[in-house]
Amino acid sequence: MDNSPHIGLIGLGTMGAALALNIAENGYPIAVYNRTPAVTDAFTSGAGDLAAKLTPAKTLEEFVAAITPPRSIILMVPAGPVVDDQIAALRPLLGDGDLIIDAGNANYTDTERRSRESENDAFDFMGIGVSGGEEGARHGPSIMVGGDAAQWERMGAILEAISAKYQDEPCAALMGPGGAGHFVKMVHNGIEYADMEMIAETYALMRDGMGFDAAQVAQTFEGWDAGTLASYLVEISGKVARATDPISGAPMLDVILDKAGQKGTGRWTVIEAQQLAVAIPVIEAAVTARNLSARLAERKKGAEVFGGMPQPLPDGVLDTETLERALIAGKILCYAQGFEMLARASAEFGWNLPMPVIAKIWRNGCIIRSEMLNDMASALATNPGESLIFAEPFTSLLRENEAALRKTVIAATGAGIAVPALAAGLSWFDSMRSPRGAANMIQAQRDFFGNHGFERLDGQDAPHGPWGAHG
Ligand code: 6PG
């Protein structure tokens, strides 16, 4: 059997190493390279039986020479300038028919630029979004592919082979040209931030409002994971709440600082949403909550100056069923916003994103995988172009769970427990069902100070108010 690789992978960090082993395990010989040779050595010596499929290289020249043309070279290096440096280093070594595939969390605008720039090169370039953390990379991630039909033709089979499967369907698909794959991955991450934040908000209500200890929190999440909310993030939240700190013997949750990190993909989602003039307030609230979480010193000062401790909720104001229902509603509202953003980008950039397929390839492998995505895939196929809130079963689910979301936000607000993402979802929902909002006031103000004009309800052609220049 031909054991000479056609594929290579650069960057043997956690994700790169796991992806290389996944590729090897699926029967594809693969050359591997890391700029620190000791990392490559440690990787190959820990690869067990799969080492036979690996061709480690100590230099970039040796790496490229080890791959039989036409070469497909996957980059798993940190997003940003490192990717450009790596492409520049490969440029003199690659020839006609070679292909560089950026599988990191690139900003889609960089992927668009790199795709354009590669038109002047002998080699080709594409960007793919890969989700699922280390476990996913090793045993099956969700893969959002950016590229043209020829690139998909070339890479589709292997990407499908290494991807997660949902009832035998691969969680890998072509999203659209250029940066489309990385754009979809970016929105995935924005939703990931929002899912995580809303779960954390229900945790805050259980801990501070209902006096739950970690074990009770764990039990609640475990129960939710067996119902409508079944998902990876709810599942791991239960596991997290169940875990004990080996150092102190306390619940893990009780020893972890409440200061969230971020690498930027959530922020990019919010920036792009504003560029597209699309409303994703749940995701925005989640990103803002992470920013605020980092301001620990000020939050402590705020607690001293204004009195910080939230009030416990009076008995019976909230129960776990109400919280579960609130999270169901919040989740639907968040995904409606995320998919709307994808639809808007698709129209704006002429990508023709396959909306139901996006939901399908998120059903397994990725961080936001959940049972609900299966129904979302059907809803997006049946009602293309329509918000998820207007498609069944989500319309019914919102009708059934809206009151619980409202009750939860009211209770949290009354007790001084911040629930920014759930509250943002509720406000968006209320805006979306207001046949007459308050923007008539905005229009009047704009006309008052700037003569900007307005449309009238009665259709009359009289676009200015009687306030003249000074009102
Ligand atoms: C995934 C994740 C992953 C992301 C981490 C950390 O889909 O596998 O989105 O790509 O890098 O979740 O992201 P933050 O550091 O921004 O939280």
Word description of this protein:
- The protein is of the alpha/beta class.
- The chain is 53% helix and 9% strand.
- The chain has three domains: 7-178, Rossmann fold, CATH 3.40.50; 185-432, N-(1-d-carboxylethyl)-l-norvaline Dehydrogenase, domain 2 (Orthogonal Bundle), CATH 1.10.1040.10; 444-471, no CATH class.
- Strand 1, helix 1 and strand 2 form a beta-alpha-beta unit.
- Helix 1 packs parallel to helix 6 and helix 11 (265-275) crosses helix 12.
- The longest helix is centred in the middle third of the chain and has 30 residues, at 180-209.
- It is globular, with a radius of gyration of 25 Å.
- The protein starts with 6 loop residues before the first strand and ends in a 21-residue tail after the last helix.
- Residues 105, 131-133, 189, 192, 261-263, 265-266, 366-367 line the site of 6-phosphogluconic acid.
Keywords:
single chain, Rossmann fold, N-(1-d-carboxylethyl)-l-norvaline Dehydrogenase, domain 2, 3 domains, alpha/beta, 471 residues, eight-stranded mixed sheet, binds 6-phosphogluconic acid, two-stranded antiparallel ribbon
